[in-house]
Design goal:
- It contains 13 helices and 2 strands, in the order H-H-H-H-E-H-E-H-H-H-H-H-H-H-H.
- The chain is an all-alpha fold and about 325 residues long.
- The chain has one domain: ABC transporter involved in vitamin B12 uptake, BtuC (Orthogonal Bundle).
- It has a two-stranded antiparallel sheet.
- The N and C termini lie far apart (about 70 Å).
């Protein structure tokens, strides 16, 4: 029985790791596309929060979680366009406006939620996205349940990793895109529209970050509450740094943070005498540890965080 319990425990831990890593992975890829174009967007938490609220509302109204995901993507674009206009068109400080998004978007989401549902201590429930097992593969012992028994959003999130690698490393468009984050003036001299590509980067970032937020309220839990994102946007930001601005590295970082999150939940159940606040700190402490020991050894794209003005020489 002890062996069976160990296997079940490990299987459930790995299954939760894959699920909990999914929103971090999606949002980390959003930041990767943004930073590869020279835009450091620390407003991921705000975009995720508004995406979570939009996804939940549409899912609650229509009963369709897929429409909720679409709503999250659209709302992510709308919120991120504020950041895009201020940082690309006006050349404003990216960190400042990223923090502004983190303040504005959650406040707006909370306001809309209270206007629609009123002030109540009861959490409203919406339809949760159903899992779609992959035939044959889901029958593989242990691994089948861990990797092939998820919602479609999980499969899409992990499929985006190789697609992103191919885009950045094997296509001309991807190489041009990366050039914008390294030396935008040289890219402009080669006929690449830097401003347009930066706006496209913000659209991609908004879509993915919004979907990451909507995933939380349509495929992970079935309700919305203030603080539902719980700092995952900042963890995704650190995943990009830890992953060395590469899709494969970002995947490993997301899985690491997903694992620590899944582990602390199980430790809470196993160690009921331990204050849960201490165990809940594990994912965030691991983030600090990773940044302190692994995040300072390599810089990102050279033009990262720097405003670009076409008229400058």
């Amino acid at each position: 029985m002890e062996t069976v319990f160990d296997i079940i425990f490990i299987q459930e831990l790995l299954l939760s790791t894959v699920r909990m890593a999914t929103p971090i992975l999606i949002v980390a890829l959003a930041e990767l596309y943004s930073e590869r174009a020279g835009l450091v967007n620390i407003g991921l938490d705000g975009i995720m929060t508004f995406g979570a609220l939009s996804g939940f509302l549409i899912c609650y109204i229509t009963g369709n979680p897929y429409l909720g995901i679409l709503a999250g993507a659209i709302s992510g674009i709308l919120i991120n366009m504020i950041y895009a206009f201020c940082t690309i068109h006006l050349g404003a400080e990216q960190i400042v406006y990223g923090m502004a998004i983190n303040i504005f978007a959650p406040a707006l989401a909370s306001f809309i939620y209270k206007i629609y549902f009123g002030i109540s201590s009861t959490l409203v429930q919406a339809t949760l996205m159903k899992t779609v097992p992959i035939p044959i593969l889901n029958k593989i012992p242990v691994l089948g349940v861990v990797f092939f028994n998820h919602t479609p959003i999980v499969y899409i999130a992990y499929l985006l990793v190789p697609l992103t690698y191919v885009f950045f490393s094997k296509t001309k468009l991807g190489l041009n895109y990366k050039a914008i984050g390294e030396f935008p003036k040289a890219a402009e001299s080669m006929g690449i529209n830097v401003m347009l590509n930066k706006y496209i980067a913000c659209i991609i970032c908004g879509i993915l970050a919004g979907i990451g937020g909507a995933y939380l309220t349509t495929a992970y839990i079935s309700t919305y509450s203030d603080g539902v994102v719980a700092g995952r946007g900042f963890i995704a930001l650190s995943a990009v740094i830890f992953g060395r601005w590469m899709p494969g590295g970002v995947l490993l970082a997301a899985l690491l943070f997903g694992f620590t999150d899944a582990l602390q939940l199980r430790l809470q159940v196993m160690s009921s005498g331990t204050p849960y606040q201490l165990l809940a700190m594990i994912p965030y402490l691991s983030t600090l540890f990773v940044l302190a020991f692994f995040g300072i050894k390599k810089a990102g794209p050279k033009a990262n965080g720097k405003p670009y003005f076409r008229e400058e020489r």
